[in-house]
Amino acid sequence: MNRFSLKTKIVCFTVSLLVFVVFQFPLTAFSAQETDQQNMNKGQRPEVIFPVISDVHIEKNGMEDLRKFETALNQLNEHAPHQDAFVVVGDLTDYGLKEEYERFFSIYNEKKNPQAVSLFTIGNHDYWNGLSIEDAQKRFLDETGMGAIYGHKVIKDYHFIWLGPENGVTEGYYSKEQIQWLDKQLNEAEKDDPRKPIFVFLHQPLTETVFGSEWGTVTNRDLLYNTLKKYPQSINFSGHTHYPLDDPRTIHQENFTSVGTSSVKYMWTEAGYLQGELPPGHETISQGLIVEAYKNKVVIKRRDFHNDAWVGEDWVIKRPFKPQTFKYTETRDHKAPYFTKDAEISAVKNPASSDRVVIKFTQADDNLLVHSYKVVAREKDTGQVALEYEAFSEYYRNPVPDPLLLPVQGLKPDTGYTIEVTAIDAFENESQSNLTLDVKTKP
């Protein structure tokens, strides 16, 4: 299934459902202060520094994609003026057309750091040009100047290894031959210096790793995972999902480290929520990373290009790189979100009708991220559940709306309901004390 072909239908449905509530009552969201610590770690200078972005999706015409790309490069140059490498992990283009590559490099070549080594991985969209697999790969290599779709470079004594999907299948195909080659490269890097991280780049993530990796590679997945598992010092950067960097699950550690890179072009996110996979405002969201390697740690900084701001706190991966010391695991968070004592919930008087109400409530707090809310409406007389759904907290917006407005619809006229709102964090912990509201629909 090509999820990107569903974009127009999903957007139309979502906007029609939420147009009256989505951009009201903002509250400034947390973003890391742009202090000296953001540009240099307490006086220490990184041994190597490089941005990682993905999913630029340059089209053959139009200006918005070029504007977003230029904005991203300007901010990366401002906050990392002395780059040693620059990495784009796939989907440079929307359809792998020659004109799209030309437009990509018209911006990139003007803005790139002259001293930075450019590394580009091929993505599934870069195959979607009607050419044979071999010709699509040749076009990618000719246009980017990369020697092969997978390779290995040493930059300032750090090992950079990139992989490439071998066809245009959405979930990504990495052959056994390529994975066996990767094993040899990782072994070589470890022998060179077992204390240092090894940076690995690929377009599609491995399933069951980062946030959104359900869209990741399936064929030979276990072979690839078990290969990386032998090298816990490997840090694996992937794109493809477009999932937002705001969610703490975008970094994942178990046997090695995996990091999602979001998208320069637009955001995508999970299905099953009121706002949809492409929620209102998704097309404005543009994000990327800056990576700094020090003698004793790797620091990963998340950037909102659309807001010209940092996202949350830096992710810090400390040496030695051992699974038993990993911080960003799936079991890292057991603290439930909570509503403060002064949290309020009410019904918005207008718009109102006989079959719907709009609720307005104070957003909950959490130690990491309030991801979503469960909304349940029960008939007061019978206790029967009339409506139940989950909605994003809209954590991906900056500022995050507070209070949050959500519709409760499909109700009976002239009927009393009790509405309960439960907060849910990124790791599915649920609030213990919830907000409740009694309402009655119009006759």
UniProtKB/TrEMBL annotation:
GO terms for molecular function: hydrolase activity; metal ion binding. Keywords: Hydrolase, Iron, Metal-binding, Signal. The keyword Iron applies. InterPro entries: Calcineurin-like_PHP, CNP_phosphodiesterase-III, FN3_dom, Ig-like_fold, Metallo-depent_PP-like. It comes from the Bacteria. Residues 341-443 form the Fibronectin type-III domain. Residues 1-31 form the signal peptide. It holds the Pfam family Metallophos. Transmembrane segments: none annotated. Belongs to the cyclic nucleotide phosphodiesterase class-III family. This is Phosphatase. It comes from Gracilibacillus dipsosauri.
